[in-house]
Design goal:
Radius of gyration: 21 Å
Helix content: 25-40%
CATH architecture of the largest domain: 3-Layer(aba) Sandwich
Number of domains: 2
Strand order of the largest sheet: 4-10-9-8-7-5-6
CATH superfamily of the largest domain: Type I PLP-dependent aspartate aminotransferase-like (Major domain)
CATH class of the largest domain: Alpha Beta
CATH topology of the largest domain: Aspartate Aminotransferase, domain 2
Structural class: alpha/beta
Number of helices: 12
Shape: globular
Largest sheet: 7 strands, mixed
Amino acid sequence: MTIIVPSPGAAQVATDLPVYLDCNATTPLDPRVQTEVLYYLSEEYGNAGSRTHEFGQRAKERVQRAREQVANVVRSQPDEVIFTSGATESNNLAILGLAPNGEKTGRRHIISSMIEHKAVLEPLEELRRRGFDVDLVPPTHGGWVEPEAVLERMRSDTLLVSVMQVNNETGVIQPITELAECLSTHEAYLHVDAAQGFGKDLVGLRSPRIDLISVSGHKIYGPKGVGALVARRRGYSRPPLSPLQFGGGQERGLRPGTLPVALIAGLGLAAELSGSEYAKRLAACELYRATVLTAFEPFRPSINGDLERSLPSTVNLSLPGLDSEAVMLALKGVIAISNGSACTSQKYEPSHVLLSMGLEEVIVRGALRLSWSHLTPAADWSEVGRRIRALR
C-alpha cells in the first residue's frame, strides 16, 4: 500500500508504510524543526556555556530564545524554563525535587490521580517508600478527575498536587483551570504533567496558580531527547526544588550538564509553531476524528472517555467481542495503532487508566488507541473495515 505523507514546507513523499495513528506515543518531526536542529548540529555547534568567543555566544542566544518560545505558550517568564531530556525527567525533578522541602517542613502529603502516566506514578511510589502519604484520586467514568474530589483530600500538610493536563490513553482533558482556582487559597504546589497537552490545549496551562509544568519535545513535532520543566515563581519565590544530579551548575543548578543546543532549538521552534498554528491544527484534527468515528461506527464501538472533554486528536475505543491484540495484528500494514501507553507496550497489562474509570475488564482488554495529527494522511478505511469484519 502506497500513501502520500504531507509535510508543511516540504514536497510530498511516497512511502509504503501504514498510516501512522500513534501520535500520542510520539509525533513526526516537523520539517521546519528538522532544518533548525540540523543547522545547530552542523553550522552553529558552539557550547552555550562557552563565554570567550562568538560560537558560544550565539549558542547561548539561541537557548535564550528557546526559553522565550516555550514560555510564551504558557504565559510564563523565560527564566522560569528549565531544559531537561523530556517530560519524564521533568516529572521526576518536580516531584522528587520537592521532597527535601517536604521533609524539612513536615509537609509529607501528596495528592495525585489514578490516571497519571508512569512517569508520575513511579516517582510518587518512591516517595511513598520514603514515608510520604500519597493519595490517588479516582477519575469519573468519563475519564476526568473532579477538582472537588481533590479539594476534599487537601490537608494542612499537603505539599503537592500533581494532575496531568491530558490523559495519554483516552485524550480526556483534565479540568486544570478549575483545579488551580480551587487551590488558590492553599499553599500546596500544583504540578501538571503536560506531555500530551502542551501546545494542543493552550488555555489550560496559563493559570499563574500552576507552579510546575512538564513538557516533552517529541509530542509536539519536535525532537526526542529534550523537554522542559516550567517552574513559576510565586511573587519573588521559586518552587523550592532540589537537584537530582550534580556537576556544572547549568539550568540554575537544577539540571547540570552541557545543554543540547540543537535539540533545545528544535523544541523552541516546535513550541512557537504550536501557538501560531493552533487553530489550523485543531480544525484538521477535528475533521480527522469525524472520519475515524464514521469508519468505526458500523462496528458499534464503546468509546472509552468522554469525547466532549477530549482533544480531537485521540479516540480510545473497544470493539464488541474483539481483543485489541487480534485487531492490531489484523490491521498491520494498513494503520499503525496501539492499545495503550508506549512506555508499557512491551509487556501488555490491562490499562490502569481504563480500569480506574470503572470499565469492565472485557472492554479494557479490547481497547484500541488511535491518535493522529494535522499531518496525518487519509487511511484506507474500507480496508480497515474489511479486515475487522474478517475477524468476526
